[in-house]
């Protein structure tokens, strides 16, 4: 562990080291700003996976008996301490009362206790400042007009425990809605219709994940396509899958991890050029390349046309067909290491 006062100097020194080709961080926006600026000064590539305030959108035709218990798990997994936890619950007015009742019942049934006990569903927070931040968000939101439905207090005893809390009648301008709530706090908001739900889902500086619940998948996709986020799930909670690219937009960071095109900002793909009569492969002299990345074929029957990668090797040149995120082919990685960091408590 590094003492807090030493973190900036150590971070810069590590990234500036000539043996490091790139850096990726999972952490807070504060940590991301520090790492991103240090990488920029060193002209190193970076991937940042930062905070989130994911919307869990429940449309008017959704099955409440399925959506509500899933929403409880999506919000309070790891005591709500996850960037991909659902945090803002935007519910169509037609089913708002039924969803709220089922959701609150599920929250109040959660078992709080020692995280080493397999029966425990909600454990302590990682740090006391995280618990203080949750309490501040609750109090500021209530002052701004939110209604406390359940919970709302820190718990005494060993460990930084806090009651699972639900606030209703939240919206833009309230701390529980505008900020990332990194703990057991859920913000409920009622939407008039799909258009209003889309507006509320977009009313955030973050853009990591989105979950939409509906009986009509086409309707769910139509809403999801209008919300700015790194990933969208219909009738499923947000999750990361190693087969698919994962990352955020807006203040949730940039770049992608996982999937076939993981770390696209880190990989170095050469340009493939063709010359009349004597086609050649031009490879930039960079340490991030280990050798040729594709085979060539003539694009047309006559000489002098641009050469293209052979279809079987499109994955290699980075000019492939549909990016389905699934591949059994190895990606070309830098010869120097990419530093991977995870901020404590994230």
Walk me through this protein's architecture.
Residues 271-344 have low confidence and may be disordered. The chain has helices at 7-16, 29-41, 64-76, 96-108, 128-143, 175-178, 194-202, 217-224, 314-317; strands spanning 22-26, 45-49, 54-58, 86-92, 147-150, 165-168, 185-191, 206-207, 209-213, 231-234, 249-250, 253-254, 296-297, 308-309, 338-342. The chain is built from 9 helices and 15 strands. It starts with 6 loop residues before the first helix and ends with a strand. With 346 residues, the chain is of the alpha/beta class. It has a 7-stranded mixed β-sheet with strand order 5-6-7-4-3-9-10, sandwiched between helices.
Decide which structural class fits the backbone: alpha/beta
Number of helices: 9
Q: How much strand content do the residues show?
A: 15-25%
On the 0-100 scale, what is the average pLDDT? 80
Radius of gyration: 24 Å
SSE pattern, N- to C-terminal: HEHEEHEHHEEHEHEEHEEEEEHE
Sheet with most strands: strand arrangement: 5-6-7-4-3-9-10
Q: How many individual β-strands?
A: 15
In this structure, how is the largest beta sheet organized? Answer: 7 strands, mixed
pLDDT below 50 for ≥5 consecutive residues: which ranges?
A: 271-344
What level of helicity do the residues show?
25-40%
Q: What is the terminal-to-terminal distance?
A: 15 Å
The outline comes out as globular
């Amino acid at each position: 562990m590094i003492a807090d006062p030493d973190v900036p100097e150590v971070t810069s020194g590590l990234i500036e080291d000539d043996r490091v080709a790139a850096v990726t961080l999972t952490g807070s926006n504060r940590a991301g700003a520090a790492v991103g600026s240090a990488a920029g000064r060193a002209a190193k590539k970076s991937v940042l996976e930062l905070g989130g305030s994911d919307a869990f959108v429940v449309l008017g035709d959704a099955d409440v008996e399925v959506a509500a218990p899933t929403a409880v798990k999506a919000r309070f997994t790891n005591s709500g301490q996850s960037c991909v936890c659902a945090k803002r619950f935007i519910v169509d007015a037609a089913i708002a009362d039924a969803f709220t009742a089922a959701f609150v019942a599920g929250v109040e049934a959660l078992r709080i206790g020692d995280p080493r006990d397999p029966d425990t569903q909600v454990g302590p927070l990682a740090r006391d400042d995280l618990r203080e931040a949750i309490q501040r968000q609750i109090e500021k939101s209530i002052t701004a007009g939110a209604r406390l439905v359940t919970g709302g207090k820190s718990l005494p005893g060993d460990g930084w425990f806090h009651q699972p809390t639900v606030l209703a009648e939240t919206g833009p301008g309230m701390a529980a809605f505008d900020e990332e709530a990194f703990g057991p706090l859920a913000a409920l908001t009622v939407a008039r219709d799909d258009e209003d739900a889309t507006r509320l889902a977009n009313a955030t500086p973050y853009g990591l994940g989105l979950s939409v619940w509906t009986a009509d998948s086409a309707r769910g996709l139509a809403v999801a396509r209008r919300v700015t986020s790194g990933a969208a799930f219909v009738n499923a909670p947000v999750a990361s899958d190693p087969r698919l690219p994962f990352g955020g937009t807006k203040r949730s960071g940039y770049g992608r991890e996982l999937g076939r095109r993981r770390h696209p900002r880190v990989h170095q793909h050469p340009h493939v050029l063709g010359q009349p009569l004597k086609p050649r492969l031009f490879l930039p002299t960079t340490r991030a390349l280990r050798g040729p990345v594709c085979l060539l074929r003539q694009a047309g029957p006559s000489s002098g046309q641009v050469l293209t990668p052979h279809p079987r090797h499109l994955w290699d040149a980075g000019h492939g067909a549909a990016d389905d995120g699934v591949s059994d082919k190895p990606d070309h990685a830098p010869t120097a290491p990419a530093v991977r960091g995870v901020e404590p408590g994230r």
